[in-house]
Structure formats: structure tokens, C-alpha cells
Design brief:
Largest sheet: 6 strands, parallel
CATH superfamily of the largest domain: Response regulator
CATH class of the largest domain: Alpha Beta
Strand content: 15-25%
Number of domains: 3
CATH topology of the largest domain: Rossmann fold
Strand order of the largest sheet: 4-3-5-6-7-13
Oligomer: single chain
Number of helices: 13
Distance between the termini: 79 Å
Shape: elongated
Order of helices and strands: EEHHHHEHEHHEHEEHEHEHEHEEHEE
Helix content: 40-55%
Radius of gyration: 26 Å
Length: about 350
């Protein structure tokens, strides 16, 4: 492995790992193990080797290191259908920051690649991972019927899923306690006197939709309120979807006094529909979201929501994946607590 420095016009000095070993007074093997992060090198020896390497301008060649170790020290983040329409939703960005920070702390690189149904028809999951040279993958935003998800279940490539609780040998997952968060949100509405509570869910192929609907149903049942499937509409986790779903709910069921939305983005759309119908929040209709995106605290009125620690989810996903890659025995399945954030969009039920 070599590093090259330029001295003057046309003159180059090539520094090799042998040069570092010679100046540091150690073997080439010791230099290699010290610079590649192995923990069996004496700390003082490691420090001296690093000083010599810095002095000579030497750094390990990544391609050569990969050939030797059979690992690229690169994690892949596989996202499904990332578009400009996601700009208001900061969930991906916050999770990405957490993943990137943890990867950098442990000397890994993070590569982002987006997938669409068209791309999936052209290239398999295994081929995509091989092409990008990743050691392991974090998957986010995948539908339960996504072909890449099905292919991942049978692949040998370690993977950590965000918001999909699948337990397999080479798989880990990180998610929020969606059932508990939804249960607390709807219980909050019931405590304010609401008995006719609608729900705007995401879509049937999202694990979080299934869990958040479960939490909604459990809260109703605990307080003796019958579940009515007519009070549930899907909004596809989109702002315009939330707006359309709220319009359908409120025009078909004028008795509703509150709506629980399975995402803040859909709640923002619901606020628009409520205003368009000449109703007020929270005087006529109370609204609760889920996620606690940045926009939730700045809309009017500020949105009551369920917070999930998005940065920590990303940080933990990268930690679990790297632990798996490095053979450490860790808890691969992690569910993080949710927290109800009460703001101005919820209030006492109106008297009819």
C-alpha cells in the first residue's frame, strides 16, 4: 500500500507501509494492524505509528485495504422513493445525521442509494449491494410488499431495518413504540372528552400503520368506545393525502370532534381541510399527529404530536449494524419509547 506526495515540479515521493515500519521500528504487520484499527496493538506503539504515518504523509489505500480485509468499511442506506416532496418531512434527514455521526465515530463510510420500482426491475438487491461495495445495509421507508425487502430476507448481507420488526439471523431493527405512542395520543383526546375520534392512517403496506392503528383501537377499547372502521381513512403519509382523508371524514361524519393522524405531514394536510370547511382547531376539531417533525411546532395552531427520537434511531441503527459486522453479540432488536408532546391543536370536545 502506498501514499504519494509531490515535491516541486514533476517530482514525487512515494511512501510505502515499509517506510512507516522502518521509521517506527516495528514490523509491516504491526503497522497494518495499527492503522486498520485492530485492538491488539499497544496504545503507545499505535500512537508512534500514527505519528510516523502523519509525518511521512502516509495513509492506507482503501482499495488495497478492502482486498486484504475483505471489507470496505462502508454502510449502505437504502431508501425507497425519496423525492422532493419529502422536503417538509425531516425524518429522513435526522435519521441520516444519526447514522452518519455513528459511522464516522467508528471509522465507517455511509453511502446513500435510493430505489424505485423501475430500478428494482433492472437490478437485484444483491447486485446493488455488490455494485456499491457495502458491507451491510440499513433499509428505510420500505413497504412490506417491497421486492427488495423479500430478497433481503434471504441474503447473507447484514441488514438493519428502520420501522419493520423482522427477526432473522442477519437482520436487526430499530423502531419507535408505535402502539404505545398512539395509545397515549388517543387517550389524551379521550381525556379531553372526545368520544367520536377519527383516524388518518398511512397505508396497509407500512408496519407503522398497522401498529398505530392497533394503538388507536386499544385506547378506544380501554375506555369502552366502540371501534368504527368508517372513522379510519388512509392518507398515504402525504400532506395532500391527509387533506383529502380529513375532508372525507368530516363531510361523511360531522359528529367527529377529533382526528388522530399517523404522521405530522398528514396532520398538516388535515389542518388545511378543516380550515377549508370553515371549522376551527381546536374549538371544533382537535388534531394530533405523529413524528414531531420541525414544522409541527411552527404551524398554526402548533401541533400536538407524538415524538420519536429520529436522530437516536439512526445512530442506534448504525451501531447495531457495525456490531453485527464486527461479530459482537448485541441486542439486534430495539424499540424506543415514544413521547406525547401537547401543544395547541387539541382542546376539550365541543358540546353538541
Amino acid at each position: 500500500m502506498k501514499s504519494t506526495k509531490r515535491f516541486g515540479r514533476g517530482q514525487f515521493l512515494v511512501t510505502t507501509i515499509k517506510d512507516v515500519a522502518r521509521m517506527a521500528g516495528v514490523s509491516v504487520t504491526t503497522v497494518s494492524r495499527a492503522l486498520n484499527g485492530h485492538d491488539d496493538v499497544n496504545p503507545e506503539t499505535r500512537r508512534r505509528i500514527q505519528e510516523v504515518a502523519d509525518q511521512l504523509g502516509y495513509s492506507p489505500n482503501i482499495a488495497a485495504r478492502t482486498l486484504v480485509s475483505k471489507r470496505s468499511r462502508t454502510l449502505g442506506l437504502l431508501l425507497s422513493a425519496l423525492t422532493r416532496n419529502s422536503v417538509k418531512d425531516n425524518i429522513v434527514f435526522e435519521m441520516l445525521c444519526g447514522m452518519n455521526d455513528r459511522a464516522a465515530e467508528l471509522d465507517y463510510d455511509l453511502v446513500l442509494f435510493n430505489t424505485t420500482p423501475q430500478k428494482q426491475r433492472q437490478k437485484s438487491y444483491k447486485a446493488l449491494c455488490k455494485e456499491r461495495g457495502v458491507d451491510g445495509v440499513i433499509m428505510m421507508g420500505m413497504r412490506l410488499n417491497d421486492p427488495y425487502l423479500e430478497e433481503m430476507l434471504h441474503a447473507a448481507i447484514p441488514c438493519v431495518l428502520i420501522d419493520i420488526p423482522i427477526e432473522r439471523k442477519n437482520i436487526g431493527y430499530v423502531m419507535t413504540d408505535n402502539i404505545q405512542g398512539s395509545l397515549e395520543a388517543v387517550t389524551h383526546l379521550i381525556g379531553l372528552g372526545h368520544r367520536h375520534i377519527g383516524m388518518i392512517n398511512g397505508h396497509a403496506q407500512a408496519a407503522v400503520s398497522i401498529q398505530r392503528l392497533d394503538g388507536y383501537r386499544q385506547a378506544l377499547e380501554r375506555h369502552g368506545i366502540p371501534f368504527d372502521e368508517r372513522y379510519v381513512e388512509d392518507g398515504e403519509f402525504r400532506e395532500d393525502g391527509g387533506k383529502d382523508a380529513a375532508y372525507r371524514l368530516l363531510t361523511s361524519h360531522p359528529e367527529l370532534t377529533a382526528i388522530f393522524c399517523a404522521s405530522d405531514l398528514m396532520a398538516l394536510g388535515a389542518l388545511q381541510a378543516i380550515r377549508a370547511l370553515g371549522k376551527r382547531v381546536p374549538e371544533d376539531i382537535s388534531i394530533i399527529g405523529f413524528d414531531n417533525i420541525v414544522a409541527a411546532q411552527y404551524c398554526t395552531p402548533a401541533l400536538t404530536t407524538v415524538n420519536q427520537d429520529k436522530y437516536q434511531m439512526g445512530y442506534l441503527a448504525a451501531t447495531i449494524l457495525i456490531d453485527m459486522l464486527e461479530g459482537r453479540q448485541v441486542q439486534r432488536y430495539r424499540t424506543m419509547p415514544a413521547e406525547l408532546i401537547v401543544r395547541a391543536s387539541t382542546g376539550p370536545a365541543r358540546g353538541d
